[in-house]
Amino acid sequence: MLKSNTRLKIGIFILAIFVLGSLILPFFTQEDPTAQGTYFKGLPPSQDHLLGTNALGQDIFWYLVFSIRNSLLLGVSVSICTTIISSLVGLTAGYNGGRIDRIIMLVTDSFITIPVLPILITLSTFVRGSSSFLSVWMILVAFGWAWNTRTVRAMALSVREREFINMARFSGTSMFGIITKEVFPYVYAYMVVGFINTILYAINTEAALAVIGLSNVTVPTMGSIIFWALNYNAMLTGLYPWIVAPVVATVLLFLGLFLTSTGYNELFAARRGHS
User: Fold this and answer.
1) Residue 23: which of 57, 72, 60 has the closest Cα?
2) 225 φ, ψ (degrees, to nearest 5)
3) How far apart are CA 196 and CA 77, in angstroms?
4) Cα torsion for 246, 252, 256, 259, to the nearest 10°?
């Protein structure tokens, strides 16, 4: 089935390049990509500087490599935590139903209605560019679990009344055993899709904050490199790789995540249709 899923294969290929490149390439340099004045300013692309240098005397290529790595680490770590929370909460609510489900969904819907970006902007304004990755990470996790919880809960509700669930109850299987062994296999694919989409959400939100200068722009991320390029008018000064390279990399990364998410969803739907 994977052989015929071109979308999934392209998505995995793009992500593999980004992940492997951002994890392996930093071992081939000893320099600090954020150090200013390391090289002559505004050098064109060459063998020594693949994307040239910027107006701060930094190597654009190495800054971009570290930016991709940090953005991916943020996105994946946020996604891992939100997926664990949403899976546990959604499965518990969907399987139990009744009062427990109503209470959990009341809390979940409350978090869904709270707009996360304005809150991040408001909190970041108080620290104005010196907010730590940890504070951004905590807020992204705190407000990022609710949407996936609804999806998992809906799938658990559709499964809980099936005959094999009743048989598991009558056989004395514990609630934890039923959720992990009987319900989880039917919802894990939606968790995977939610996991990928949450990476998109985390990277996109942090990048949006960095571009407007409300994240910690001293840390290389996909947003901070664009922030500095805009701040120093890279397009007007002819330093095109400084702004074009991170924009193209961001688009390709998001495309890889999108294709992987939709391709996996398509693969899972096809498997269910043949099961």
Assistant:
1) 72
2) -65, -35
3) 11
4) 140
Report the distance separating Cα 222 and Cα 169, nearest Å: 49
Residue 140 tokens, joined: 């992204």
Instruction: Name which residue leads in pLDDT, 107 or 96.
Output: 107
194 within 8 A of 175, measured Cβ to Cβ: no
Which region holds residue 221: left if phi is over 0, alpha if psi is between -120 and 50, else beta?
beta
| Cβ atoms of 264 and 193 closer than 8 Å | yes
Classified by CATH at the fold level, domain 2-18+54-274 comes out as: MetI-like fold (1.10.3720)
Q: Where are the domains of the chain?
A: 2-18+54-274
d(CA 38, CA 49): 12
Residue 64: CB partners within 8 Å, gap ≥ 6? 51, 225, 245, 246, 249
Region 231-245: mean pLDDT is 92
What 3-state class would DSSP assign to 59? Answer: strand
Q: What is the pLDDT of residue 125?
A: 67
The pair of three-digit structure tokens given for residue 257, joined into one six-digit string: 């995540």
Residue reference for tokens 């658990």: 156
Report helix, strand and coil shares of the chain as percent, to nearest 5.
75, 0, 25
The closest of 52, 50, 58 to 21, measured between CA atoms, is: 50
Q: pTM here?
A: 0.85
